[in-house]
Structure formats: C-alpha cells, structure tokens
C-alpha cells in the first residue's frame, strides 16, 4: 500500500484531533479528559514565556477553555491522570502507570536516568531511603522544603534534596500529588496518590509494556515510522524492533509506503484520513503534532527548531516560535511572548512560508486575537507579514 504525503498528513491530523473540530464551544472537564486521552499524554515544561506547555495543545484543538480544568485534573482524587516520564515529563492517563514500571525499575537500577541522579541508585542509596522514610512519616514534600541555600540561587540550581526527590520520582518510589506555587511538583508515597486499583494491577513484562506503548503511539500518530513510534514515549531504539514486528504480525499496525519518505511507515489499523482539516491553530513547540522535528518536516515540508537555547544573534525565527496551522498545512510561524505586566501578547517576529495561501495573514491575525483573548491579553502591534 502506498500513500501520498497529503494523505499521510490528513491521517496524522485526524489522529491528533485536528479534524471535525468544534472550537470555542462550552468546554468542560470531560472534553478536556477525552482530548488528553486521545493524545495519550501532555508534555509538561517549565517554560512560561507564553503559557505552560500542557495548556496550549488543548487550546489548539478545543479553543478557549478554562485552564483551571487542567489544574484540577492534575490535583484531583481519585486520579485519572498522573505525572511521570512519558515523552518528557508528562501528564498521562492513569492506566499508563503499569506500562511504565519497566522505566521505574531501570531507574532504581541506575539506568536510563540523568547522570547526576545515578549515585542514588548505588552508593548514595541510603540518603534516598532516608528521605523516602521522611515522606512516609511527615507527608508530602516539595524540593523547596529541602532547598536550604540553593533556594536563593533560583529554580535552575537544584539542591541535593531536589536531586534525591527526582531520583525517587523517576524510580516510582514517590509520585507527584500536585503542583504548587511557581509550578513546583509536590511528592508523596504512591499509595497515597495513585488509585489502589492501579497499584494492584499486575506489572507487565518490559517487552509487553513497550509493545502496548508503541501501539498507543500508533493510535496517537495515525501514521509513523519506527523512529516516530519510539519517540512518542521515548522507547529506547534497542527495545523497539521486536514489539513493532509483533504489532505488524497481529495486525495492529500495517506497513505502508509514503511517497518521498525514505523510511518504512506504519499505519494504525483504525486510522482514518477524515475530512479536509479546516481552520486555524497555533501550535506549541511542545505539541505532539510537531515535537518530533524530523516528522514535522516529512509531513509538512516545514523545517522547525526550538531556538530557546540558541544565542540570540544566531536565532533564525525567534525565541519561542509557534507554527501556524491553516487548513491542514503549516503556513507561518510567530515568535510570541506574554507580557503579563502590561497585559499584552507581544508578537516579536512573524513570517509566512513560501506558497502560503493569500488568506494567511488575516487568518493568523484572527488566531492571535483568539489566543490573546484566552490568555486575558491584547495583541501588540499587528505583525508585519
């Protein structure tokens, strides 16, 4: 079976919730939960130049909604979603917990984690056990409760306590109960955070869990290469070939060719192209539609890089750049900043892609107004395009 790139794009957009959208209706918690479940996860990131990463993908798909709905979902009991390492730090459906215990087990063995955390799986394990015991007796703790002198140096200077907490979290020995203050994660024992019914579920083998995660990747992406499937939940390359072969054998994914793609592609067995994707949407750099930059280029012929860590004089498009989706194509990009003190959405830079339709500037302007209204801001001077 061979597909055109246009067909692959429609399949991907449908899988990601960009077909048959009804935006700016009355969005409730149930609709927010359904959207997160469809995506399989929401990436969480501390960058707050515009709005935190996990808020924007829902706005792109649903339009204006109350961000407090997500805050409530992150803190609710019983938990239907939980925080853990999915793509990066992510909000995940609660039934994903057993599927990530292999990652927790590797972290407990000092594998698959940041190098600075590795000692807590070995020679400094006693320190981690002592902090775990303290949480057990005293209740939830955040890094700021342990920061000491590091607190005065800013959020990017981790205290020793923060390092221990992060290893405990990665190892599944504590869970995130909620966020507080400046988006700070609060940790407690899993049995006091997660539903007992989930904790009591049998732990699948690592191979079984990774096969299911790859199947979920396929559903969320619609059509994907092996690399795309791995990237969604960060499955190590060595662990992917066998479960992908098994998913093909059982018919969960179907090998296909996409014209112009060098790599083998796989189609989720339930994927549909849907109708033509209409309407505009600004996309967060952490939106699952575009976070895989290679896939974005293959699907949309749109080269996209996040330039936050690029020196200012070397940036091509800006600091916090959002691609603009219009009628199923990426047609422009804008560098945005929310100046909350002045109540302004600042458009620092904007550019239109070659061959973008003539309606792009007007559509982009309308979407910027929609975004600003949702954030309680007003748009700065209109972008010059």
Textual characterization of the structure:
This protein has 385 residues and is of the alpha+beta class. The protein has helices at residues 5-15, 29-39, 56-62, 68-75, 101-108, 125-138, 160-170, 196-199, 206-221, 226-232, 241-249, 293-300, 360-375; strands spanning 2-3, 42-43, 81-85, 89-93, 141-142, 175-180, 184-188, 223-225, 253-258, 265-268, 280-282, 321-326, 329-339, 344-352, 378-379. It is 34% helix and 18% strand. Helix 13 links the parallel strand 14 and strand 15. The protein starts with a strand and ends in a 6-residue tail after the last strand. Residues 149-157 have low confidence and may be disordered.
* Sheet with most strands: 5 strands, mixed
List how many beta strands DSSP finds: 15
Secondary-structure element sequence? EHHEHHEEHHEHEEHHEHHEEEHEEEHE
Structural class: alpha+beta
Give start-end ranges of low-pLDDT stretches.
Answer: 149-157
- Count the DSSP helices: 13
What is the distance, rounded to the nearest whole angstrom, between the alpha carbons of the first and last residues? 41 Å
User: How much helical structure, as a percent, in the residues?
Assistant: 25-40%
Strands ordered across the widest β-sheet: 11-12-13-14-15
Strand proportion, as a percent range, falls in 15-25%
Overall radius of gyration: 21 Å
**What's the overall geometry?**
globular
Oligomerization status of the protein chains: single chain
**Average pLDDT level:** 93
């Amino acid at each position: 079976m061979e597909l055109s790139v246009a067909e692959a794009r429609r399949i991907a957009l449908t899988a990601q919730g960009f077909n048959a959208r009804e935006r700016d209706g009355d969005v409730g918690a149930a609709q927010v939960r359904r959207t997160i479940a469809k995506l399989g996860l929401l990436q969480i990131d501390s960058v707050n130049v515009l709005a935190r990463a996990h808020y924007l993908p829902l706005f792109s798909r649903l339009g204006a909604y109350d961000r407090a709905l997500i805050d409530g979902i992150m803190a609710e009991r019983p938990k239907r979603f939980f925080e853990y390492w999915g793509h990066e730090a992510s909000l995940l459906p609660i039934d994903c917990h057993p599927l990530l215990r292999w990652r927790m087990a590797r972290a407990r063995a000092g594998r698959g984690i940041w190098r600075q955390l590795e000692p807590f799986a070995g020679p400094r394990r006693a320190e981690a056990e002592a902090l775990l015991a303290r949480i057990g007796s005293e209740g939830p703790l955040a890094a700021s409760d342990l920061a000491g002198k590091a607190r005065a140096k800013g959020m990017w200077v981790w205290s020793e306590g923060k390092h221990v907490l992060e290893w405990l979290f990665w190892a599944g020995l504590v869970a995130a109960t909620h966020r507080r203050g400046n988006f700070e994660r609060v940790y407690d024992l899993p049995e006091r955070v997660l539903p007992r019914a989930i904790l009591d579920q049998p732990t699948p083998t690592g191979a079984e869990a990774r096969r299911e995660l790859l199947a979920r990747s396929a559903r969320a992406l619609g059509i994907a290469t092996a690399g795309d499937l791995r990237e969604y939940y960060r499955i190590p390359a060595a662990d992917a070939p066998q479960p992908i072969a098994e998913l093909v054998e059982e018919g969960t994914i179907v090998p296909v060719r996409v014209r112009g793609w060098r790599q083998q592609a796989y189609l989720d067995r339930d994927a549909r192209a849907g109708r033509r994707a209409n309407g505009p949407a600004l996309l967060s750099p952490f939106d699952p539609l575009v976070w895989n930059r290679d896939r974005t280029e293959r699907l949309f012929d749109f080269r996209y890089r996040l330039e936050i860590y690029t020196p200012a004089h070397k940036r091509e498009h800006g600091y916090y750049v959002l691609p603009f989706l219009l009628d199923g194509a990426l047609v422009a990009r804008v560098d945005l900043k929310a100046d909350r003190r002045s109540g302004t959405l600042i458009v620092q830079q904007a550019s239109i892609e070659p061959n973008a339709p003539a309606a792009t500037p007007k559509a982009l302007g309308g979407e910027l107004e929609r975004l600003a209204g949702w954030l309680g801001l007003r748009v700065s001077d209109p972008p010059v395009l």
